[in-house]
Amino acid sequence: MSQIERLRLxxxxxxxxxxxxxxxxxxxxxxxxxxxxxxxxxxxxxADGSIPEDPKEQIDVAFKRIEAVLTHLGLDxxxxxxxxxxxxxxxxxxxxFREVKERYVRADFPAWTILGIAALARPELIxxxxxxxxxxK
Length: 137
Known about the structure:
Layout: E1 4-6, H1 20-25, E2 30-33, E3 36-43, H2 55-72, E4 80-87, H3 90-104, E5 111-116, E6 127-134
Parallel strand pairs: 4-5
Antiparallel strand pairs: 1-2, 2-3, 3-6, 4-6
């Protein structure tokens, strides 16, 4: 029998602000099951609800959100086993994405899938990042 745990963030979380968006759209920031952590796709959305105009900053905010979820679970980027990045414009974003990614994923590289997509939830968004991590239990 598998044990499933859903992450609930503190209501004053510095990175996310609250659980409002998760409650509104009825999903969890992360779900742990059978030794794996499935982190919901993260976008470049600041805690105050704003989205950076600069592509590198938007990508960085998305990685910071993933880092925050990992930290809440006692994990870090070395525990990530799969990374999927969704890009509205892969051609113009990939170099910037790789540059930002290298600041977070430094060793023990995960499997990485890069997907070009037509759009994300808000028109000003350029990238969404989803990861799967292995627990340390």
